[in-house]
Amino acid sequence: MLHYLVNFLYPPRCAGCGARLSVDAAARVCAPCLAGIEPIPAPFCAVCGIPLEDAGTDSRWCDDCVEAPPHFGRARAVARYSSRAEDDSGTVASIIRRHKYGLDQSLAHALAECLGGELPLPAADYDLVIPVPLHSSRLRWRGFNQAAMLAIAVARRGGRTVDLKSLVRVRATPPQTMQNQRDRRDNLRDAFAVRRPARVANRIVLLIDDVMTTGATADECARTLLAAGARRVDVLTLARAL
Asked: Residue 212 and which of 18, 183, 239, 240 are 20 to 30 A apart at CA?
């Protein structure tokens, strides 16, 4: 009743396009916006999940993964979006940017809806769900970790435990927006640590983040978790910047 009353006094709008939603709506994203989310096109790399440029190639790995295999086993994303900051036309890109940089914590529910129904890597296949952590200084500034909010939603779907404390970011790193993949990897070296190794030892871990760009952050997190005894680390992100 209270939910209906609040929606009646403050009519809800779609977090994607701004269209007015019905008074009894529980969703934050309208059906047309959800239907318009663009998945990662096949064929894609069997490791990092990036679309392969040559659809007729016999190789199942992209050139980057062949040259420098990442520490994670597989990385998959629910949707693609433009990596250009000026392009906010896509539902996922628009919500992610307003959530992270507009500091709108209320959009966490909308992002969870953008995950869709069937995840490319179901949480039920893993022992632990762990988000990519923020450094304490960034967490204080933003007030929340968007990856942690997604991890909670993913873990809940699979009936799995979400671990928010074992993997921590111990070193603040400069922004990586204008850096190439090698510079990003150097920038992130030893930026993470596992505070509770017994928690991850011999576990199959699903690492969660909102966006994967080059994969450098996910790779360093996976390296750190494996060094602490994790059996395998796979990566699930809401979006892949292409």
From this structure: 18
Are 149 and 115 in contact, with CB atoms under 8 Å apart?
no
Q: With helix as H, strand as E and coil as C, how does 66-83 read?
A: HHCCCCCCCEEEEEEECC
Q: What is the CATH number of domain 70-241?
A: 3.40.50
Contact, 164 vs 131, CB < 8 A? yes
For residues 66 and 48, what is the distance between their CA atoms, to the nearest angstrom?
11
Please give the model's pTM, rounded to 2 decimal places.
0.89
* Alpha-carbon dihedral angle through residues 117, 162, 242, 223, given to the nearest 10 degrees: -140
The pLDDT profile of the chain, 242 residues, written as one tens digit per residue, is 444 444 444 568 899 988 988 877 788 999 999 999 999 988 999 999 999 976 555 568 999 999 999 999 999 999 987 655 545 558 898 898 888 777 777 888 999 999 998 999 999 999 999 999 999 888 787 888 999 999 999 999 999 999 999 999 998 876 655 556 666 777 788 899 999 999 999 999 999 999 999 999 999 999 999 999 999 999 999 999 88
Closest CA to 63 of 184, 181, 206: 181
